[in-house]
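Example record for the data management plan.
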Amino acid sequence: MPLHRRLPKRGFTNIFKTHYTIVSLAELDQFEEGSVVDHDALVKAGIVKNNGSPVKVLANGELTKSLTVDVDKVSRGAAEKIVAAGGSVKE
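Corresponding structural encoding:
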C-alpha cells in the first residue's frame, strides 16, 4: 500500500475561499488630499500587484488626509478612521 494512502486524511480546504490583498491605512496616507483610492490607483502606486484579487483595507496605522476609498472591502475600524479624517468609503 503506498504511503499517501496509508496516512490519515484530515481537515478541509475550501476551494471557494476569497483571498484578499491586504492594504493598511498607513499605506494609503501617501496619496494626495481628496484623491480617489481604488484598485487602479493602488496598482499605479505600487502598493498592490495587478493580479485581479480583491483588495481589503485594514485599520493598521493612522490616516491624516481626506480620501475617497473605493475598494472591495473595508474593515469597520478602517472605515471609522477614514470618516474621522474627513474622507468617505464606497464599497
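Summary line stored alongside the record: The longest strand covers residues 21-24.
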